[in-house]
Amino acid sequence: MTAGNNHTRPRTVCALALCAAGIVWMTHELPAQDPDADAKALRHSFDAVVKPFFQKNCVSCHNADTALAGVRVDQLDAGMEDRHLKHWEAVRHRVKDGSMPPKGLPQPSVADRDNVVAWINGALDVARRRPDPKNGMVRRLTVAQYRNTLRELMLLDDDLTETLPPDAVSRDGFVNNKDTLQLSPLLTEAYFEIAEEALNRAIVDPKSKPRIQNFRMDLGTGVNPKPLPEQLILGANSLLLDNRDYTVTQLTANKPFASVPSFMRTKYRFIEGYQGNDTVRGWREFDSIYHSVFACMRGSRGYPKGLAYSS
Predict the structure, then answer these.
(1) Is the backbone of residue 299 left (phi > 0), alpha (psi -120 to 50) or beta?
(2) So what's the pLDDT on residue 217?
(3) What does pTM read for this prediction?
(4) DSSP string, 251-292
């Protein structure tokens, strides 16, 4: 674990703020588009420019009855349906290069061709500005997806999402269902706090040495020649391993970079144990690493008999 870089982060925050400001500015400067007004204008200009051109030069050969080369123009209108956009592009190409109507037939004027091509260009632009239909809705990341995203972006093996509540399961048994992935203000705050902690661990200040804590635990029957004389208690129904069956040793990490060793606390002062009449508790002094590191077995108390664990 390394300390966060207080010098790097302001630059990152400023960059994000500037980026957001740029997006807001661009959105503000873009001209507002009115889909209804665009559609009305297209219908009016289609009836005035394109429809007469088609009737005079194209429909006689490209209609429902005589669709030469499998092409029809009688079904094209100002609606500019998505399924017809490629067809409109082909018509624009043929009209612009003069290949349609074919040679030997009456030809439209250059001005009429230019007007039709200009209309198709404008209509295609309007059609491409239409909002695309969305398949589904925006949802938050699941806990697993958020954890994997942090690992992928920051190369961080630490699991910082343990404090998040588990994702709800849909009726079909899925946890990535948009209806169950609600994002409350409290959960949003938790996601941001985890991101902040991930940045603290991933961003290193080159001017400071990281503090590294390193310890070793050995487990086995009777491996501890000097077990802790006091019996540790960890809440109700404690299932701690007997201290005779494990040892804890603090080590100094050997790293290829400059670092500062960090050792765990060993001295404690607890109100623990009875004095005299079993009603008065007293202060007791402890000096042992086993009050900082202990081994606990979760699960049954032993089946079919014996201890809940076996070294």
Answers:
(1) left
(2) 93
(3) 0.36
(4) E----SS--EE-----EEEEEEEEETTTTEEEEEEEE-GGGT
